[in-house]
Each structure stands twice: as C-alpha cells, then as structure tokens.
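--- STAGE predict ---
source: upstream dedup step, 1 unique chain passed
mode: sequence only
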Amino acid sequence: MNMEKQQTENRLAYDTQQGRWRAIRETWWTALQLGLTSFGGPIAHLGYFHTTYVRQKKWLDEKSYADLVALAQFLPGPASSQVGIGVGVMRAGIWGGIIAWLGFTLPSVVMLMLFAYLMEAFDPGAAGWIQGLKIVAVAIVAQAVLGMAGKLASGPIRAAVAFAAMSVVLLWTSPVAQVTVIAAAGALGWWIFRKKQGEEEAAPKQARIPISRRAGLVCLGLFLILLLGLPLLASLSSSTGIAVVDSFYRAGSLVFGGGHVVLPLLESETVANGWMTKEEFLTGYGATQAVPGPLFTFAGYLGMLIQGVPGGILATLAIFLPGFLLIVGVMPFWNTIRTHAKLQGMLTGMNAAVVGILLAALYHPIWTSSIHGSIEFVIGAGLFAMLMFWKCPPWVVVLAGAAAGQLLL
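--- STAGE serialize ---
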C-alpha cells in the first residue's frame, strides 16, 4: 500500500508544471549521486539503482524494475545506463531521461578525459604503472566472463553457443563477425529458448510512460537513419570528427550487454584505425575501472586521445546516443511487448553469444598484450583473487595493479 501511495503521489506531482520541474531536479540530483558513487560495473550499478529507485525513492515497483532491466539487456547499448534513462523517463518524461543519463555519466567522463590529458605527458611503454593497469584489465574482464557465464551460458546448449561465438570471433577477423554471431544466436534463441507464458501468471502492472508512440517511432527511425547514414557520410568526408562519431555510434549500436562487451568493438575502431596504440587503449581501459559510473565513458578517454576535448565530447555522445534512442523509442510499446515469450528466448541466445565474444576479447587483445611472462601472470592472478574472493572494490584493485606494475621496472 505504501508503494502504491508513493507512486500515486509521484504521478500527481508530475502532472503540474511545478511538479515537472521538481521531478527533473530530483532526477538530476539522484542520478548525479549515483554517478559519483556507483563503482563496480553494470551488475553493481543495477544493484545501486534498485536500492535507490525502488527501495528508497519508490519511483517504480519491483516487477516494473525487473522488466525494465530485461528490456535494457535485450536492446543494444549500455544496459545499466539504459535502465537509468528508463527510470528517468518514467519519472519526468523525455527530459527526465536526458537528465538521468547526464547525471550518471558526467562525473566519470570528466575524470577519464582528465586522465587522457595527463597521459599525453607519459610514454605508455616506459611507465610500469601503465603495464599494471593493463594487467588490471585482464583480472576485471576475467571476473566479468566468469560471472556472466554462470548466469548466461549455463547448461550444455547455451555453453555451446558461447563456445561457438568465441571461436567464430577469434578465427573470423572481420568487422561484421560479432554482429553476425549475435544475430545468429538471437535467431537460434527465438526457436530453441522461447518460454511459454503460464496461464496462471498474472499480467504485469501497466507502467506509466509519459512518451507518445509517435515520439517513440521518431527515435527508432532516427536510430536507423544514423546507423545507415553515418558510414556513408564518413566515407564522403575527410573530417576526423565525423569519423569519430561514425565509429563510436556504430560501437554503441552493435554491442549487446554493454560494459566490457564493447571492448573488442572499440579496439577494432580505434587501434586498427591508427588513432592510438594498443598500450594507450588498454591503459585507459584499466583506468576506467577506477572511476564510478558506466563503462561506456571509456569513450571519453578514447575521444580525448583522438581529437582533444571536442573528440572526447563527440565520442561520449556518439556511443551513448544509440542506446538512448532505442530505450526511449521502445518504452512507449513496453507494456505490450514486456511479456513476449519468443523475445525472451532471443535474448537468451544473444546473452550466451555475448559471453563467448567477451571470452574472445579476454584472450585477444587483453591477454596477448598484457601477460608476457610468469611475473605478469602472478600479478594478474593476485588481482583476480582480490576481486573474486576477497571482494575488494575495483578502485583498490586498480591502485594495487598500478603499484605492482611500477615494481616491475
């Protein structure tokens, strides 16, 4: 009863002009606090969101939150950020979604762009702490693979899908390999993993979405226009800025699962294009583990190395824009599709493939660029144990890795 009463008050507050501004301000400060304190990656972020938005603020109920998480996992893009955007939309409309994203993202973007600026004074190949950060990336991704495999690739069929995805991505070195693997896994999941909805299961409570279906279709149309049009525009232009927007928008559009899964896509878009060295790339990825907020803010660091402050801003906006357009575009139709059994099956297949793709990324480029001998392996194993068994915060592991790397010199 208290939950329903609070939600009724929230709706009434939003239905007045003064209430809308109050909802937007409250959304901003809440998201900013989360952006400053949410360490630990996407899964941890979802836990922080649940505590804040469901238990403390009571902006939505348990079932609505769980379904919103499932929707974000199904769509390409940064899942935890999309959940935050979705909560902002439900709380204060389209501006609420924008403010929720900005508050959650801004702190880590600023930190990582500043780190990239300081990096210009260092030679990545000569600094031991840089090597330490590269080894941190091994431990972080290994933990992510292990955690995701237990939930998303359990059982013989899903494990086989993950293994096949890993094999294809490693052996077929093509830009379309990952997209093809995810699409094939989704089609397989649609057929094999579809779930039958129990007749006795009660229909979920209808969520209030203050966005029209027309606005949702506009967002979905814009997503497709940019996805298809930016590569053409980049091919016709010599502008580095357009090339940056194209590369990072495509990375944000084609990654399922978010977080660490974007690593191989970004590596192929930046290192392969000659915008930076593999050492600079992995150093920034290690540093990203030490800051709160979404892992997609890694784009701020990469863009900063490519084209300074404008590049950092463009890369950040470009990588988050697809996920924003998709979650906002789909939410008006959410109440209709949230219990679709075959879509849940498709998601199951895609998630298993994501585990395989991330395992491939753990081997190359992360392991092959970071672990060169017994000493590096021992350090990496120790950092992994700190994360996995001793439950140390990621920023502690980052500092330990940097210190251990410095001792290698």
